[in-house]
Specification:
With 288 residues, this protein is α/β, with parallel strands linked by helices. It has 10 helices and 13 strands. The structure holds spermine.
Length: 288
């Protein structure tokens, strides 16, 4: 992409080909890290007013003040929808944010984590320790490699699989295609649940329709939710979920008080309300 690392008058602009003609700009104080890995351009900025910000191939992945919304919801909606999640797989999310959230669940016995780009993990550990703390969990096994290949090698193994991918341009492309979802389904144990980064129903309609169609065809229970995240384009991002049994649209376990007290976004009401969709989206999903 031609706009990598392009800061004009102190402002970084996310100019995403998936959202032509519109940019999201954030004022930058300092470039803390900027290098091309084997897979992508990795930039870590100190912004003027919004903490540190991780950018991959010119696309904002997280900022410190609002990452909790995305990571809590992507993790806790599927985790609390499952009656007893013990064995978990996290694909992508090299910053460690989803791992941090999954690790809060005491019932979890083991977490496989697969990330294609080891450099993202290193950058997160150096610059984003409050997010990368998820890697300190002794239940986590790190696998560096392609998520699609890893998933296809796993059968009947996981209670919950969470896919924290970047956009479907670049290394994450195959994580938005049907064969990957077939692999996810085969990797699940009975009653298993998947949750994947589901882009925006305002901005990426074709991509969202495709995800919903694939998951509806493959899973007996399917749903789409969304999260408010100010620093993603449109201020929100979707999550596409599929389940082999449990209902998705409400927590199926009690959220203990001490667990709830650690969180800033997720709660039982947010779980349920995140599935309430605007009318145009209901129409978009009808009959597909
Ligand atoms: N753990 C944070 C990783 C973030 N993964 C999702 C990033 C999505 C960014 N794009 C949003 C839509 C813009 N085209």
């Amino acid at each position: 992409m031609e706009n990598y690392n392009k800061i004009v008058d102190g402002w970084f602009s996310e100019i995403c080909p998936m959202w032509p003609g519109v940019a999201l700009s954030i004022k930058i104080k300092e470039v803390l890290y900027s290098k091309r890995s084997k897979f992508q351009q990795i930039d870590l900025y100190q912004t003027s007013n919004f903490g540190k910000m991780l950018v991959l191939d010119g696309i904002i992945q997280l900022t410190e003040p609002d990452e909790f919304a995305y990571h809590e919801m992507l993790a806790h909606v599927p985790m609390f929808a499952h009656p007893n999640p013990e064995n978990i797989l996290v694909v992508g999310g090299g910053d460690g944010g989803v791992l941090r959230e999954v690790g809060r669940h005491e019932c979890v016995k083991h977490i496989d984590f697969c990330e294609i780009d080891e450099e993202v993990i290193k950058v997160a550990k150096e610059f984003l320790p409050d997010i990368a703390c998820g890697f300190d969990d002794p239940r986590v096994d790190i696998h560096i490699g392609d998520g699609n290949s890893f998933v296809h090698a796993q059968k009947n193994k996981y209670d919950v699989v969470i896919v924290d991918s970047s956009d479907p341009i670049g290394p994450g492309e195959n994580l938005f295609e049907r064969p990957f979802y077939e692999g996810l389904k085969a990797a699940l144990r009975p009653n298993g649940i998947i949750a994947t980064q589901g882009e925006s129903f305002f901005l990426h309609k074709d991509c969202v329709i495709n995800l919903v169609k694939i998951t509806r065809e493959l899973f007996p229970v399917q749903a789409y939710s969304y999260i408010l995240v100010p620093t993603y384009p449109g201020g929100h991002i979707g999550v596409c979920l599929g389940s082999l049994g449990p209902e998705l649209k409400k927590p199926n376990r009690t959220i203990p008080d001490d667990f709830q007290n650690q969180l800033k976004y997720y709660n039982s009401d947010m779980h349920k309300s995140s599935f309430v969709l605007p009318q145009f989206t209901k129409k978009m999903f009808k009959g597909i």
